[in-house]
Amino acid sequence: MSIADERVLATPPSPAPPPAPPPLRERVTELAALRERIRRGDPKATMAQHSRGKLSARERLGLLFDEGTFTEIEALRRHRATGFGLEARRPHTDGVVVGWGLVHGRTVFAYAHDFRIFGGALGEAHAEKIHKVMDLAESTGAPIVGLCDGAGARIQEGVTALAGYGGIFQRNVRSSGVIPQISVILGPCAGGAAYSPALTDFTFMVRDIAQLFVTGPDVIRAVTGEVIGHDELGGADAHASLSGVTAFAYDDEESCLTDVRYLLSLLPSNNREPPPAAPSGDPADRRADRLLDLVPADPGRSYDMRAVMAEIVDDGEFFEVHERWAANVVCALARLDGHVTGIVANQPAHLAGVLDVHASEKAARFVRMCDAFNIPLVTLVDVPGFMPGADQEHGGIVRHGAKLLYAYCDATVPRIQVILRKAYGGAYIVMDSRSIGADLSLVWPTNEIAVMGAEGAASVIFRKEIQAAADPDEALRRRVAQYRDELMHPHYAVERGLADDMIDPAETRSVLVRSLAMLRAKHRALPFRKHGNQPQ
């Protein structure tokens, strides 16, 4: 055998060529199957979610968005954490569904915790997905909705999970007043997770399934000995009526998400746009003669301010915010001739419409929201003053009342004040008077504007004379009548230029429509500042 033949025999055989990659069509088929598995999720986990009376994350998104418009991103994302068994459990989506779609034809971003995966708990990958969609919403100038149903931070990931919440909070604040942010609580939302809803513009909750609190009943019982249930502590009704943490409470998810969609139809996509206008079939010049009978001329008699609002706005429809909290002031979004308007109104049917700590805070927050999103303000005034009492003073009525004053003074949107009946003392000033910058002040023929009511004023001014009189009651009656005739007659404010016009109540709607149309081009130049230091 020759040397050449030996070399041939010694050469190893060539390796087999690698298998050809599967055809693209096969890979696309695999991808479609994977996406379908992700979409369906674990059937047992889905059944468990339904057994709790809750919809799945994707079912909720289907109710929020126009049909077929939701586009999901990062559906294939998986966490990379190790330890405590996490490396053996790496489900796709990592427990949160994020993306965008259309609501009434306009782009909206959303994230939805998927309680079926890790109980919706937030880890690093989970948080980064939310950061991504929040950044997209901010950069494109579109609202964002968070559907919250999660068990808080993922304990197995430690401080990494907490840092993820920090990134969410930072983005909440950065987008505040830039794009509308809405939180919908549809399950547990506890600990640090509770602060993101508190930083957003509106919070919705559903009864029986939603709980929102910083420390739960078990911790409270261990620390203070107090025994309280989840719903009593942080349920929808508790926050809607007692704390004011949530603006809206519902019996079911379907009605809740329907109203989220309705609210989005009233808000602009961002702070550089006007709120969306809609054609109105309600005539702009419609007279509201029923107002002549709704509001009693006697300033001491009660009535429902919401009935007045229904006569003024398009088709009698308005969307009230915080309906069950601080009911002595009404805050609502409505349309006037198709244009969205914010309405702040004293409510004589509750505590005589007096301003107190909670009413001041509620109205101030609403005024600032409207101003941030270019929504003009109409203020309907029938206020006897600020609530007296040591509990109010110690509760901070000075600083809370100052919040409302600050909010109005700082607002640059069109502002119209309408005084229906009484407007006494500092409350008259705070309820968007001409002196703090209202563009127009209109009064009804029943208006009474004064430092205080006639009886109180006469009792102070003529105290000695009344005490010395043979008939103190008759002396008081005479001086009350004098004070009314000289300082509280309906023409007093318009004669001195403190109000722009006295109007027929039945023409309130048409006057407001014309006035708001005139003010639509309003522009107010502000001094340079980083930001104001509003009362806390």
UniProtKB/TrEMBL annotation:
Bias class Pro residues marks the residues at 12-23
Q: Which PANTHER family match?
A: PROPIONYL-COA CARBOXYLASE BETA CHAIN, PROPIONYL-COA CARBOXYLASE BETA CHAIN, MITOCHONDRIAL
Pfam hit, one: Carboxyl_trans
Q: Specify where the region named Disordered lies, as residue ranges.
A: 1-25
Q: Which Gene3D superfamilies match?
A: 2-enoyl-CoA Hydratase, Chain A, domain 1
* Organism this protein belongs to: Actinomadura graeca
All copies of domain CoA carboxyltransferase N-terminal, residue ranges: 24-279
Q: Please give the InterPro entries that the UniProt record associates with this protein.
A: AccD/PCCB, AcCoA_carboxyl_beta, ClpP/crotonase-like_dom_sf, COA_CT_C, COA_CT_N
- Which superkingdom is the protein from? Bacteria
UniProt domain CoA carboxyltransferase C-terminal: residue ranges: 283-518
The entry's protein name is Acyl-CoA carboxylase subunit beta
